[in-house]
Design brief:
The chain has 457 residues and is mainly beta. It folds into two domains: 229 residues, Jelly Rolls; 179 residues, Sandwich (Jelly Rolls), CATH 2.60.120. Helices cover 3% and strands 42% of the residues. The protein contains one helix and 33 strands. A hairpin with a 2-residue loop joins strand 4 and strand 5. The longest helix is centred in the first third of the chain and has 13 residues. It is elongated and about 70 Å long. The protein starts with a helix and ends with a strand.
């Protein structure tokens, strides 16, 4: 997620420094993706170069064949769930501002502008990062770059467009030292060409049939492929975060500017919506955490969160406190069927044991179901109710019903008894989903709780 940007700063510093620091990069283009297709990691299933979604003939998890990890059917959840012309009263809730050092970033004059500090540090960095991942398959991320840093006489200013996964693996387009560089930055598989402020005013990272294309345009309408600008699509393109920003490594007074994020084309592309929550399905059969999930761990967590074959497994250890949870990298719409987890009845617990299934919106308003000390509670930002806990409960469900959230449980995953409807108090059309253990006090002994499926038995 966006906090992983810290881990990626070293790669960007290396790229912006380049040969001037005595470093050597392998700038040869990577081979193109095979036309035969392949099986991507957890949910990116390709056949003859085409990506199948949950509506295809092959099942994704559940009872219908080997697990291919979770899948999200389309068209929904693409890059145009976030479009921005940077006008209006300030940063949209979908963006997180990220700053390292003393650079600044602000919206002014209908642009997003990055400025170096008057007294810079060794490496200054400022960006907007999407709070959620998007499905890049069959689509693209594009932005206009009116000022990339090319006017900087010191060569220290660098504009960048990054597309990356929750671990920091990164596709990039970066202006640096008179050149436009692009490729898989985390693997140092990067190509550089002389930069043209006119021909390269617009930048685009596009996925098509298992291949990523790096492209540029003078007007955002006519796009041109960049030399050596294709790479095999990483498996995580189904859940890719987006970032634009600038970096400075020495004294500079150059402003970097962006405009029209995902507003390319004439007319601009049609915005997409977030996918229904029920389209995310995972039975955790393969024991590998999918790009659709990230781990949330407290800074000093006395617990673990792992996928093991057939289970999402959470352990709180004796003496431990904090949270260990799975969180969706993408956002979803809770209307319709909502979402549920299959969690066998919790019978082994201590007074400190907690387990939650929660949702949260772009303004960080939270709601959900929480188990603690043998009781199950439902809550939203504006309401709360103690539900008790029956020993035969095995499924927890959350869904939006009008302006309310309905919390329901089931013994068999078929018949749900509506437990309670509470005023939602949050945006139920753009929610992240979280489940896992939570201990507010030191655990008196170790406890293990497992989930057998998300939106599946």
């Amino acid at each position: 997620m966006y906090h992983e940007a810290v881990a990626r700063l070293g790669w960007l510093a290396l790229l912006t420094c380049g040969a001037g620091c005595g470093l050597t990069l392998d700038l040869s283009p990577a081979p193109s993706v095979s036309a035969d297709g392949d099986v991507g990691r957890d949910g990116a299933v390709m056949r003859d170069g085409a990506v199948l979604d949950a509506s295809g003939v092959d099942g994704f998890g559940g009872d219908g064949g080997p697990d291919a990890g979770p899948a999200v059917s389309g068209p929904c959840g693409g890059p145009t769930v976030l479009e921005d012309d940077f006008t209006g009263g300030g940063r949209r809730a979908a963006w997180e501002a990220y700053v390292v050092g003393r650079a600044t970033i602000e919206q002014t004059g209908g642009q997003l502008r990055v400025r170096p500090a008057a007294s810079p540090s060794i490496f200054d960095y400022a960006s907007y990062l999407s709070k959620f991942a998007v499905d890049l398959r069959g689509s693209w991320v594009a932005v206009e770059v009116p000022e990339a840093g090319a006017s900087d006489p010191t060569g220290s200013a660098s504009a960048f467009l990054n597309v990356y996964d929750a671990t920091g693996a990164e596709l990039t387009m970066t202006y640096t030292v008179g050149e436009l560089a692009y490729g898989l930055l985390s693997a140092l598989d990067v190509v550089s060409i002389p930069y043209s402020p006119t021909a390269h005013r617009w930048w685009r990272v596009r996925e098509d049939a298992g291949t990523v294309h790096f492209e540029a345009s003078p007007d955002g309408v006519t796009w041109n492929p960049l030399p050596g600008g294709t790479r095999p699509a990483p498996g995580w393109v189904e859940a890719a975060f987006m970032e634009i920003g600038g970096a400075y490594d020495i004294l500079s007074d150059t402003v970097i500017a962006f405009d029209n994020f995902n507003l390319d084309g004439m007319p601009p592309r049609v915005p997409t919506t977030f996918c229904p929550a029920m389209t995310l399905v995972d039975d955790f059969d393969d024991g590998v955490l999918s790009p659709q999930w990230d781990r949330w761990l407290s800074p000093v967590a006395g617990c673990t969160a792992d996928e093991v074959p057939g289970l999402a497994n959470f352990t709180s250890y004796e003496g431990g406190v904090g949270e260990c949870q799975f969180v969706t990298t993408r956002r979803f719409d809770l209307h319709g069927e909502g979402a549920f987890i299959h969690i066998p009845s919790i019978t082994d617990y201590t007074p400190e044991t907690g387990f939650v299934f929660e949702v949260y919106d772009l303004q960080d308003n939270w709601a959900g179901l929480a188990f603690a000390a043998g009781e199950l509670s439902a809550y939203t930002p504006v309401a709360w109710m103690d539900l008790g806990y029956g020993g035969s409960v095995a499924y927890w469900r959350i869904r939006a019903m009008g302006t309310d959230l309905e919390m329901a449980t089931s013994e068999d995953g078929v018949t749900y008894a509506p437990v309670v409807s509470l005023a939602a108090g949050l945006d139920t059309g753009a929610c992240g989903m979280v489940f896992g253990v939570r201990a507010a006090a030191p655990m008196s002994r170790s406890i293990n709780i497992s989930v057998r499926g998300f939106n599946t038995d």
